[in-house]
Design goal:
It is built from 16 helices and 20 strands. It is an alpha+beta fold. Helix 1 runs antiparallel to helix 2, helix 7 packs across helix 9 and helix 12 runs antiparallel to helix 13.
Length: 479
Protein backbone atom coordinates (compact mmCIF):
# COMPACT_ATOMS: atom_id res chain seq x y z
CA UNK A 1 0.00 0.00 0.00
CA UNK A 2 2.83 2.38 0.89
CA UNK A 3 4.83 1.34 -2.16
CA UNK A 4 2.57 3.09 -4.65
CA UNK A 5 2.58 6.89 -5.01
CA UNK A 6 -0.05 8.26 -2.68
CA UNK A 7 -1.53 11.73 -2.14
CA UNK A 8 -2.26 13.26 1.22
CA UNK A 9 -5.90 13.79 2.22
CA UNK A 10 -7.76 16.61 0.36
CA UNK A 11 -7.86 18.47 3.67
CA UNK A 12 -4.25 19.22 2.82
CA UNK A 13 -5.60 21.79 0.35
CA UNK A 14 -7.36 23.62 3.19
CA UNK A 15 -4.21 23.58 5.32
CA UNK A 16 -2.12 24.83 2.41
CA UNK A 17 -4.63 27.61 1.78
CA UNK A 18 -4.65 28.57 5.48
CA UNK A 19 -0.84 28.57 5.59
CA UNK A 20 -0.57 30.92 2.62
CA UNK A 21 -3.34 33.22 3.91
CA UNK A 22 -1.50 33.38 7.24
CA UNK A 23 1.70 34.49 5.51
CA UNK A 24 -0.14 37.28 3.65
CA UNK A 25 -2.55 38.48 6.32
CA UNK A 26 -0.23 40.90 8.20
CA UNK A 27 1.11 42.64 5.05
CA UNK A 28 -2.48 42.86 3.73
CA UNK A 29 -3.74 44.52 6.94
CA UNK A 30 -0.86 47.00 6.98
CA UNK A 31 -1.31 47.69 3.26
CA UNK A 32 -5.04 48.30 3.77
CA UNK A 33 -4.66 50.80 6.62
CA UNK A 34 -1.71 52.64 5.08
CA UNK A 35 -3.34 53.36 1.73
CA UNK A 36 -6.99 53.56 2.72
CA UNK A 37 -9.16 55.85 0.51
CA UNK A 38 -12.23 55.32 -1.68
CA UNK A 39 -10.37 54.62 -4.92
CA UNK A 40 -7.76 52.56 -3.18
CA UNK A 41 -10.45 50.43 -1.47
CA UNK A 42 -11.86 49.35 -4.87
CA UNK A 43 -8.45 48.34 -6.17
CA UNK A 44 -7.68 46.68 -2.88
CA UNK A 45 -10.85 44.54 -3.02
CA UNK A 46 -10.19 43.53 -6.65
CA UNK A 47 -6.57 42.72 -5.87
CA UNK A 48 -7.58 40.81 -2.73
CA UNK A 49 -10.07 38.69 -4.68
CA UNK A 50 -7.49 37.90 -7.37
CA UNK A 51 -4.93 36.99 -4.72
CA UNK A 52 -7.43 34.74 -2.92
CA UNK A 53 -8.30 33.00 -6.21
CA UNK A 54 -4.61 32.54 -6.97
CA UNK A 55 -4.03 31.03 -3.52
CA UNK A 56 -6.98 28.63 -3.98
CA UNK A 57 -5.67 27.44 -7.36
CA UNK A 58 -2.14 27.12 -6.00
CA UNK A 59 -3.38 25.11 -3.00
CA UNK A 60 -5.25 22.69 -5.25
CA UNK A 61 -2.29 22.22 -7.61
CA UNK A 62 0.13 21.76 -4.69
CA UNK A 63 -2.08 19.03 -3.27
CA UNK A 64 -2.48 17.35 -6.65
CA UNK A 65 1.26 17.32 -7.41
CA UNK A 66 2.34 16.14 -3.95
CA UNK A 67 2.81 12.37 -3.69
CA UNK A 68 4.82 10.11 -1.39
CA UNK A 69 5.74 6.45 -1.31
CA UNK A 70 8.41 3.97 -0.17
CA UNK A 71 10.73 2.43 -2.74
CA UNK A 72 14.15 0.73 -2.52
CA UNK A 73 14.58 1.54 1.14
CA UNK A 74 13.74 5.23 0.71
CA UNK A 75 10.86 7.54 1.47
CA UNK A 76 10.29 9.35 -1.79
CA UNK A 77 8.37 12.59 -2.17
CA UNK A 78 7.50 14.31 -5.43
CA UNK A 79 6.03 17.81 -5.45
CA UNK A 80 6.13 21.18 -7.20
CA UNK A 81 3.69 22.97 -9.50
CA UNK A 82 5.83 24.37 -12.30
CA UNK A 83 9.09 22.63 -11.42
CA UNK A 84 8.79 19.01 -10.29
CA UNK A 85 10.98 18.35 -7.26
CA UNK A 86 11.89 14.91 -5.95
CA UNK A 87 13.20 14.16 -2.50
CA UNK A 88 14.65 10.78 -1.57
CA UNK A 89 15.14 10.11 2.17
CA UNK A 90 16.90 6.80 2.98
CA UNK A 91 15.04 5.00 5.74
CA UNK A 92 18.21 4.44 7.75
CA UNK A 93 18.63 8.24 7.94
CA UNK A 94 15.16 8.75 9.39
CA UNK A 95 15.61 9.43 13.09
CA UNK A 96 12.15 10.47 14.20
CA UNK A 97 8.53 10.37 13.08
CA UNK A 98 6.51 13.05 14.87
CA UNK A 99 2.74 12.69 14.71
CA UNK A 100 0.46 15.54 15.71
CA UNK A 101 -3.11 16.63 15.08
CA UNK A 102 -4.34 20.20 15.14
CA UNK A 103 -7.99 21.20 15.30
CA UNK A 104 -8.49 20.83 11.52
CA UNK A 105 -6.90 17.38 11.42
CA UNK A 106 -8.95 16.24 14.42
CA UNK A 107 -12.20 17.34 12.74
CA UNK A 108 -11.47 14.92 9.88
CA UNK A 109 -9.75 12.27 12.05
CA UNK A 110 -6.42 12.88 10.37
CA UNK A 111 -2.88 13.45 11.61
CA UNK A 112 0.17 15.43 10.55
CA UNK A 113 3.44 13.52 10.14
CA UNK A 114 6.87 15.15 10.37
CA UNK A 115 9.88 13.16 9.21
CA UNK A 116 13.17 14.13 10.83
CA UNK A 117 16.69 13.02 10.08
CA UNK A 118 19.98 13.60 11.87
CA UNK A 119 20.64 16.61 9.65
CA UNK A 120 17.24 18.21 10.18
CA UNK A 121 17.43 21.90 11.03
CA UNK A 122 14.66 24.17 12.26
CA UNK A 123 12.14 22.64 9.85
CA UNK A 124 11.36 18.93 9.52
CA UNK A 125 12.93 17.05 6.60
CA UNK A 126 9.47 16.25 5.20
CA UNK A 127 5.91 17.02 6.28
CA UNK A 128 2.75 15.12 5.39
CA UNK A 129 0.23 17.70 6.56
CA UNK A 130 -2.92 15.53 6.53
CA UNK A 131 -3.06 11.76 6.25
CA UNK A 132 -5.17 9.06 7.87
CA UNK A 133 -4.03 7.69 11.21
CA UNK A 134 -3.86 4.22 9.65
CA UNK A 135 -1.43 5.52 7.03
CA UNK A 136 0.72 7.13 9.72
CA UNK A 137 0.77 3.82 11.61
CA UNK A 138 1.67 2.03 8.38
CA UNK A 139 4.60 4.40 7.82
CA UNK A 140 5.90 3.58 11.29
CA UNK A 141 5.45 -0.13 10.60
CA UNK A 142 7.40 0.13 7.34
CA UNK A 143 10.24 1.89 9.16
CA UNK A 144 10.20 -0.67 11.97
CA UNK A 145 10.17 -3.61 9.52
CA UNK A 146 13.03 -2.15 7.51
CA UNK A 147 15.16 -1.52 10.60
CA UNK A 148 14.37 -5.01 11.84
CA UNK A 149 15.55 -6.51 8.56
CA UNK A 150 18.92 -4.83 8.71
CA UNK A 151 19.57 -6.13 12.21
CA UNK A 152 21.96 -9.03 12.59
CA UNK A 153 20.31 -12.47 12.66
CA UNK A 154 21.57 -13.11 16.18
CA UNK A 155 19.88 -9.99 17.43
CA UNK A 156 16.62 -10.96 15.71
CA UNK A 157 16.68 -14.34 17.40
CA UNK A 158 17.31 -12.65 20.71
CA UNK A 159 14.38 -10.30 20.15
CA UNK A 160 12.13 -13.29 19.37
CA UNK A 161 13.05 -15.14 22.52
CA UNK A 162 12.86 -12.12 24.83
CA UNK A 163 9.51 -10.32 24.54
CA UNK A 164 9.80 -6.53 24.60
CA UNK A 165 7.86 -4.83 27.36
CA UNK A 166 6.40 -1.35 27.28
CA UNK A 167 7.12 1.07 30.08
CA UNK A 168 4.42 3.69 30.38
CA UNK A 169 4.28 6.95 32.31
CA UNK A 170 1.06 8.96 32.47
CA UNK A 171 1.08 12.38 34.04
CA UNK A 172 -1.04 12.56 37.18
CA UNK A 173 -3.74 15.21 37.51
CA UNK A 174 -1.99 16.57 40.61
CA UNK A 175 1.28 16.99 38.69
CA UNK A 176 -0.57 18.58 35.78
CA UNK A 177 -2.09 21.18 38.11
CA UNK A 178 1.31 21.87 39.66
CA UNK A 179 2.84 22.27 36.18
CA UNK A 180 0.07 24.66 35.15
CA UNK A 181 0.17 26.80 38.29
CA UNK A 182 3.98 27.06 38.44
CA UNK A 183 4.82 27.52 34.77
CA UNK A 184 6.44 30.63 33.32
CA UNK A 185 3.59 31.00 30.82
CA UNK A 186 2.43 34.19 32.55
CA UNK A 187 5.55 35.90 31.22
CA UNK A 188 4.75 34.67 27.71
CA UNK A 189 1.21 36.06 27.90
CA UNK A 190 2.38 39.44 29.18
CA UNK A 191 5.05 39.54 26.45
CA UNK A 192 2.44 38.63 23.82
CA UNK A 193 0.14 41.45 24.97
CA UNK A 194 3.05 43.91 24.99
CA UNK A 195 4.13 42.80 21.51
CA UNK A 196 0.58 43.18 20.20
CA UNK A 197 0.25 46.67 21.64
CA UNK A 198 3.65 47.71 20.27
CA UNK A 199 2.84 46.40 16.78
CA UNK A 200 -0.63 47.87 16.52
CA UNK A 201 -0.27 51.01 18.62
CA UNK A 202 -1.17 53.15 15.61
CA UNK A 203 -4.48 51.34 15.22
CA UNK A 204 -5.45 51.52 18.89
CA UNK A 205 -7.14 54.74 19.98
CA UNK A 206 -5.23 55.32 23.21
CA UNK A 207 -6.77 58.80 23.53
CA UNK A 208 -10.26 57.35 23.90
CA UNK A 209 -9.01 54.74 26.34
CA UNK A 210 -7.25 57.37 28.46
CA UNK A 211 -10.34 59.60 28.43
CA UNK A 212 -12.58 56.72 29.51
CA UNK A 213 -10.30 55.86 32.41
CA UNK A 214 -9.37 59.44 33.32
CA UNK A 215 -10.91 59.00 36.76
CA UNK A 216 -8.01 56.66 37.59
CA UNK A 217 -5.54 59.56 37.49
CA UNK A 218 -6.82 60.58 40.92
CA UNK A 219 -7.04 57.03 42.28
CA UNK A 220 -5.07 55.87 45.29
CA UNK A 221 -1.97 53.68 45.24
CA UNK A 222 -4.08 50.91 46.73
CA UNK A 223 -6.41 50.90 43.72
CA UNK A 224 -3.43 50.79 41.33
CA UNK A 225 -2.02 47.84 43.28
CA UNK A 226 -5.36 46.04 43.08
CA UNK A 227 -5.62 46.63 39.31
CA UNK A 228 -2.08 45.37 38.76
CA UNK A 229 -2.86 42.33 40.89
CA UNK A 230 -6.03 41.64 38.88
CA UNK A 231 -4.07 41.96 35.63
CA UNK A 232 -1.44 39.46 36.79
CA UNK A 233 -4.12 37.15 38.15
CA UNK A 234 -5.94 37.07 34.78
CA UNK A 235 -2.64 36.42 32.97
CA UNK A 236 -1.89 33.64 35.47
CA UNK A 237 -5.31 32.00 34.89
CA UNK A 238 -4.80 32.17 31.10
CA UNK A 239 -1.36 30.64 31.57
CA UNK A 240 -2.84 27.78 33.63
CA UNK A 241 -5.45 27.09 30.96
CA UNK A 242 -2.77 27.08 28.25
CA UNK A 243 -0.55 24.62 30.11
CA UNK A 244 -3.51 22.36 30.97
CA UNK A 245 -4.48 22.17 27.30
CA UNK A 246 -0.87 21.66 26.20
CA UNK A 247 0.06 18.86 28.60
CA UNK A 248 -3.29 17.10 29.07
CA UNK A 249 -3.03 13.33 28.52
CA UNK A 250 0.77 13.58 28.68
CA UNK A 251 2.06 10.06 28.18
CA UNK A 252 5.55 8.62 27.77
CA UNK A 253 6.00 5.11 26.36
CA UNK A 254 9.36 3.37 26.20
CA UNK A 255 9.36 0.58 23.66
CA UNK A 256 12.41 -1.28 22.37
CA UNK A 257 14.95 1.36 21.46
CA UNK A 258 12.86 4.51 21.40
CA UNK A 259 10.73 6.77 23.58
CA UNK A 260 7.36 8.03 22.38
CA UNK A 261 5.86 11.14 23.96
CA UNK A 262 2.28 12.22 23.28
CA UNK A 263 0.20 15.07 24.71
CA UNK A 264 -2.45 17.71 24.10
CA UNK A 265 -6.21 18.17 23.65
CA UNK A 266 -6.90 20.61 20.82
CA UNK A 267 -3.50 20.08 19.23
CA UNK A 268 -2.41 16.52 19.81
CA UNK A 269 1.27 15.81 19.39
CA UNK A 270 3.39 12.68 19.37
CA UNK A 271 7.17 12.60 19.09
CA UNK A 272 9.41 9.53 18.88
CA UNK A 273 13.02 9.80 20.02
CA UNK A 274 15.46 6.90 19.50
CA UNK A 275 17.49 6.29 22.65
CA UNK A 276 20.72 6.50 20.67
CA UNK A 277 19.84 10.08 19.68
CA UNK A 278 19.73 11.30 23.28
CA UNK A 279 22.76 13.51 23.85
CA UNK A 280 22.06 14.64 27.39
CA UNK A 281 19.43 14.88 30.10
CA UNK A 282 18.58 18.27 31.59
CA UNK A 283 16.85 18.54 34.97
CA UNK A 284 15.43 21.96 35.81
CA UNK A 285 13.82 23.48 38.90
CA UNK A 286 12.45 27.00 38.76
CA UNK A 287 12.42 28.68 42.20
CA UNK A 288 8.73 27.99 42.81
CA UNK A 289 8.92 24.32 41.82
CA UNK A 290 12.11 23.95 43.86
CA UNK A 291 10.23 25.28 46.88
CA UNK A 292 7.44 22.74 46.28
CA UNK A 293 9.85 19.86 45.61
CA UNK A 294 9.20 19.35 41.89
CA UNK A 295 11.48 19.03 38.88
CA UNK A 296 11.17 19.12 35.07
CA UNK A 297 13.19 16.65 33.01
CA UNK A 298 14.22 17.42 29.40
CA UNK A 299 15.82 15.34 26.67
CA UNK A 300 18.55 17.02 24.63
CA UNK A 301 18.61 15.10 21.36
CA UNK A 302 20.66 15.35 18.17
CA UNK A 303 19.03 16.62 15.02
CA UNK A 304 15.31 17.16 14.85
CA UNK A 305 13.35 20.37 14.73
CA UNK A 306 12.52 22.47 17.74
CA UNK A 307 9.92 20.62 19.75
CA UNK A 308 9.16 22.07 23.16
CA UNK A 309 11.48 24.73 24.41
CA UNK A 310 14.29 25.59 22.07
CA UNK A 311 15.86 22.29 21.01
CA UNK A 312 14.85 20.42 24.17
CA UNK A 313 12.02 17.93 24.46
CA UNK A 314 10.17 17.64 27.75
CA UNK A 315 10.33 14.09 29.08
CA UNK A 316 8.54 14.72 32.38
CA UNK A 317 6.86 18.17 32.69
CA UNK A 318 6.63 18.06 36.48
CA UNK A 319 7.51 15.20 38.79
CA UNK A 320 8.25 15.03 42.48
CA UNK A 321 11.99 15.17 43.17
CA UNK A 322 11.66 11.82 44.96
CA UNK A 323 10.40 10.16 41.75
CA UNK A 324 13.00 11.52 39.34
CA UNK A 325 15.63 8.81 39.93
CA UNK A 326 13.06 6.01 39.65
CA UNK A 327 11.57 7.36 36.39
CA UNK A 328 15.00 7.97 34.86
CA UNK A 329 15.96 4.40 35.75
CA UNK A 330 12.93 3.18 33.79
CA UNK A 331 13.12 5.44 30.74
CA UNK A 332 16.72 6.64 30.39
CA UNK A 333 18.69 4.17 32.55
CA UNK A 334 22.06 5.29 31.16
CA UNK A 335 21.77 8.64 32.90
CA UNK A 336 21.97 8.90 36.69
CA UNK A 337 21.74 12.10 38.73
CA UNK A 338 24.11 12.30 41.67
CA UNK A 339 23.21 14.56 44.59
CA UNK A 340 26.83 14.66 45.78
CA UNK A 341 28.69 17.20 43.70
CA UNK A 342 32.06 18.88 43.89
CA UNK A 343 31.11 22.41 44.91
CA UNK A 344 32.84 25.63 43.94
CA UNK A 345 35.57 27.06 46.20
CA UNK A 346 34.51 29.60 48.84
CA UNK A 347 36.46 32.36 47.04
CA UNK A 348 33.94 32.10 44.18
CA UNK A 349 31.03 33.18 46.37
CA UNK A 350 31.92 36.87 46.40
CA UNK A 351 32.18 36.93 42.60
CA UNK A 352 28.77 35.32 42.16
CA UNK A 353 27.12 37.85 44.47
CA UNK A 354 28.87 40.87 42.92
CA UNK A 355 28.00 39.65 39.43
CA UNK A 356 24.29 39.72 40.29
CA UNK A 357 24.33 43.01 42.24
CA UNK A 358 26.21 45.23 39.76
CA UNK A 359 23.44 45.29 37.08
CA UNK A 360 20.90 46.03 39.81
CA UNK A 361 22.93 49.03 41.01
CA UNK A 362 23.15 50.29 37.43
CA UNK A 363 19.35 50.19 37.32
CA UNK A 364 18.74 51.57 40.81
CA UNK A 365 20.85 54.76 40.49
CA UNK A 366 18.84 56.36 37.63
CA UNK A 367 15.58 55.27 39.25
CA UNK A 368 16.50 57.07 42.48
CA UNK A 369 17.70 60.15 40.58
CA UNK A 370 14.69 60.56 38.28
CA UNK A 371 11.81 59.13 40.31
CA UNK A 372 12.15 60.40 43.86
CA UNK A 373 10.93 59.40 46.35
CA UNK A 374 9.49 56.19 44.85
CA UNK A 375 12.81 55.36 43.20
CA UNK A 376 14.21 54.45 46.63
CA UNK A 377 11.91 51.40 46.67
CA UNK A 378 14.18 49.91 43.98
CA UNK A 379 16.82 49.41 46.71
CA UNK A 380 14.95 46.20 47.53
CA UNK A 381 16.67 44.77 44.44
CA UNK A 382 20.03 44.72 46.23
CA UNK A 383 19.20 42.08 48.89
CA UNK A 384 17.22 40.13 46.28
CA UNK A 385 20.22 40.01 43.95
CA UNK A 386 22.55 39.13 46.81
CA UNK A 387 20.36 36.14 47.68
CA UNK A 388 20.15 35.22 43.99
CA UNK A 389 23.94 35.37 43.70
CA UNK A 390 24.42 33.30 46.85
CA UNK A 391 22.14 30.52 45.62
CA UNK A 392 23.73 30.63 42.16
CA UNK A 393 27.04 29.94 43.91
CA UNK A 394 25.58 27.36 46.30
CA UNK A 395 23.87 25.30 43.55
CA UNK A 396 26.82 25.24 41.13
CA UNK A 397 29.03 22.16 40.98
CA UNK A 398 30.23 19.20 38.97
CA UNK A 399 30.76 15.47 39.20
CA UNK A 400 32.26 12.72 37.07
CA UNK A 401 31.20 9.11 37.45
CA UNK A 402 32.66 6.75 34.88
CA UNK A 403 31.95 8.22 31.45
CA UNK A 404 29.17 10.49 32.67
CA UNK A 405 29.70 14.13 33.62
CA UNK A 406 27.20 16.14 35.64
CA UNK A 407 27.23 19.93 35.67
CA UNK A 408 25.01 22.03 37.94
CA UNK A 409 24.40 25.77 37.70
CA UNK A 410 21.69 28.37 38.19
CA UNK A 411 20.65 31.28 36.03
CA UNK A 412 17.17 31.73 37.45
CA UNK A 413 16.25 28.06 37.57
CA UNK A 414 18.51 25.44 39.06
CA UNK A 415 19.78 23.20 36.23
CA UNK A 416 21.60 19.87 36.15
CA UNK A 417 23.11 18.52 32.91
CA UNK A 418 23.95 14.82 32.57
CA UNK A 419 26.08 13.98 29.54
CA UNK A 420 28.40 11.18 28.46
CA UNK A 421 31.92 11.85 27.27
CA UNK A 422 31.31 10.46 23.77
CA UNK A 423 28.32 12.83 23.35
CA UNK A 424 30.34 15.98 24.05
CA UNK A 425 31.11 18.05 20.98
CA UNK A 426 33.70 20.16 22.77
CA UNK A 427 34.81 21.49 26.13
CA UNK A 428 36.68 24.71 26.84
CA UNK A 429 37.81 26.95 29.66
CA UNK A 430 38.04 30.73 29.88
CA UNK A 431 39.95 32.86 32.35
CA UNK A 432 39.47 36.59 32.86
CA UNK A 433 41.99 38.86 34.54
CA UNK A 434 40.10 38.84 37.85
CA UNK A 435 39.50 35.07 37.72
CA UNK A 436 43.23 34.53 37.20
CA UNK A 437 43.99 36.41 40.44
CA UNK A 438 41.89 33.89 42.37
CA UNK A 439 42.89 30.77 40.36
CA UNK A 440 39.38 30.42 38.92
CA UNK A 441 38.11 29.49 35.48
CA UNK A 442 34.84 29.25 33.56
CA UNK A 443 34.22 25.77 32.20
CA UNK A 444 31.89 25.23 29.25
CA UNK A 445 30.77 22.11 27.39
CA UNK A 446 28.87 21.89 24.11
CA UNK A 447 26.61 19.08 22.94
CA UNK A 448 24.99 18.48 19.57
CA UNK A 449 21.33 19.45 19.77
CA UNK A 450 19.15 20.87 17.02
CA UNK A 451 20.95 22.80 14.32
CA UNK A 452 23.70 24.63 16.17
CA UNK A 453 24.22 22.74 19.42
CA UNK A 454 23.86 23.92 22.99
CA UNK A 455 26.45 25.07 25.53
CA UNK A 456 26.39 24.88 29.32
CA UNK A 457 28.87 26.99 31.32
CA UNK A 458 29.81 26.84 34.99
CA UNK A 459 31.59 29.99 36.13
CA UNK A 460 34.36 30.43 38.67
CA UNK A 461 35.43 26.82 39.10
CA UNK A 462 38.71 26.02 40.80
CA UNK A 463 41.31 25.74 38.04
CA UNK A 464 42.44 22.37 39.45
CA UNK A 465 38.89 21.09 38.97
CA UNK A 466 38.73 22.25 35.37
CA UNK A 467 42.08 20.51 34.76
CA UNK A 468 40.57 17.26 36.10
CA UNK A 469 37.58 17.54 33.74
CA UNK A 470 39.78 18.35 30.75
CA UNK A 471 41.94 15.32 31.57
CA UNK A 472 38.83 13.16 31.85
CA UNK A 473 37.57 14.41 28.49
CA UNK A 474 40.92 13.86 26.81
CA UNK A 475 40.70 10.81 24.59
CA UNK A 476 44.29 10.01 25.41
CA UNK A 477 43.33 9.69 29.08
CA UNK A 478 40.04 8.01 28.29
CA UNK A 479 41.63 5.17 26.37
Amino acid sequence: MMFEPKRIHPVGMILSFARMIKSYIIPAIVFFFVGSNDRFDLYFIIGGCCLALLIVVTSILEWWKFTYWFEDGELRIKHGIFVTKKRYIPIERIQTINISAGIVQQLFRLVKVQVETAGTGIEAEAVLSAIKKQDADRIQEVLAEYKQEIKKPSLIEEDQTIPQEQTVYKMKMKDLLVAASTSSGIGVIISAVAAFVSQFDELISFEEIFERFEFLTHASITLYAILVFIGFFIAWILSIIGVLLKYAYFTVVKEEDEIRISRGIFEKSQVSIPLKRIQAIKIVQNPLRQLLGYKTVYIESAGGSAVDEGTSTILFPVVSKHEVSMLMEQFVPLFKQNSRLHRLPIRSKKRYMIRKVLPAIALILPLIYFFQPWGYTSLILIPICLVWGYYSYKDAGWNIEGDQMQLAFRRVSKTDILVYRNRLQSVKTKTSYFQKKYSLQTFECTIKTGLVGNSFPVKDMDDRDTDKIISWYSYETGK
